[in-house]
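Blackboard transcription, Thursday session:
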Amino acid sequence: MARHGRIAAGAALLLAAAAAFVLPDWIISLATIAFANGLVVLGLIVLWRAGLVSFGQALYYCIGAYAVALVGRATGVTDAFLLMLIGGAAAGLVAFVVGFLLARYREIFFAMLSLALSMILYGVLVKAESLGSTDGFSVASPTFFGYAPHQEKLLMALYWLVLAVCAIAAFLIDAYFRSVSGALAMPVRDNEIRVEFLGMSVSRLIHTKLVISGLLAGMGGALAAFAIGHVDPNMSYWTTSGEFVFITILSGAGSVVSAFVGSLAFESLRSFAFAMLPQLWQMLLGSVLLLTILFLPQGLGSLVTRLRWRRKAAAP
Amino acid sequence: MNAPILSVRDLGKRFGAMTAARDITLSVPAQQTVGVIGSNGAGKTTFINMITGHLRPTNGTIHFEQRDITGLPSRRITGMGISRSFQVAQIFPSLTVFENMCAAAAVCRAPKNLLGHLYTPLRSKESVAEAETLLELFEIARYRDTLAANLPQGIRKLLDIGMAVAGSPRLLLLDEPTSGISIEEKFGLMQVVMSALRNRKITVLFVEHDMEIVERFAERVLAFYDGTVIADGTPSETLGDERIQTLISGPRLKGAAGAARHV
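(Written on the board underneath:)
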């Protein structure tokens, strides 16, 4: 990201944080879930840049969420930050293990295999009666380094935590995209043979991306579990994964910020569509996806890039 | 003469009943430019692939700078200082020429571990400088911001070889550097490549079908026939030998009969 890109992102972050004081609760709650999902989308972008589409990101999302709920229930730990790290680590670990298998596949095989893995978890959770089966179970209210807020205060505290985590994740992933490991995404998509002959293991590069995306999805799931206050097997269902892919198309893989912009746009759109057309809201979402693919194939993020191009073209 | 950079002893490769290479014994002193000739199926590419670790030899040994590299995986061998270019240029089409070169330079310069790959930026000062130097050296700097997908064939080849050189190899294997290039362009391309490689003091083995190119650029010629080296000498000795001439350029019929038997 260029310097003024970073300044703009920082300003947007402060604005978003300050907005908690003026905006109604329902918007804060919507934004909290949107930004938590944005972490999952950020992970998908990491894979997307290397030409990989995961239709099973719900696996890590669900593991993150269940890890938070289960650890909270079993140990009584309520610290949001700690539980989130546990959720992320659990999902990252699973991504590391299944990565040995997934890193060998590309294209549709990669997409379907990741989907299959998430559906296995779904099947297990549906059968697990001690975990509430299809109903799932609720998550205890989190605390923040000893601070235990209630109602609106809790909503705001959680919102700020999510914002802070997103900001840190965006910053780190932006740095990752410029590192040797991250910046080789496009070369990997273009020509694996050449990357191998430069002395780099393609499968190790992809494995790294899988772990990063798993960690992000796990943290996203953990934060979503707090925001929703409940976990259920649907978090691992394939439509959940599909939704994340939808948001990734809407966002575009151009920059780290687009993941959060796209996710917020999607959640707003869904709420709006649901309120306006209770019977036909899916049709509205589908139309937006169609229009995005037709007119903004690089996603919402490309609007900024286009603007910059136009300015550059006008400058001389 | 300096110690050999590459020495190969009794090297052979069989695929089932077929012998692709056999009894290859030779050594190459540092900074020599060696042309490799032979008809299709004579074992040239098998030979190259065994050195780069792409194929595991059935028997024999390969030493590079006095170290045994026989059967090591290709990534290890690349890291030790042997690089190769391809008959069909292997580049990153959706990146610009500069980005291609920069990626190559960065990968080869980054510390060889995961953490190093995570904290080293791709566009570090060193990798950018090395990329710019190589673009100049291979005379493709004016294509710097062109997408590699839009490059003419000759420039693709130069970029491919340039990327192979980015890792500062001591030995470079060029697999048909002039294939797919028009006759008018061939000499110019080889001139650029060879002077760049001499500038970097790189030992070169190049597979080539065009005898004029071999005569002009090779200091030494290895003639392959039926999986082994049948002649090894200066270009005038090897190319002047009538027996070799007929075996290299005239065995089409024999080769065709052999191929038919395998079908």
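Lecturer's comment: Chain B has eleven helices and ten strands.
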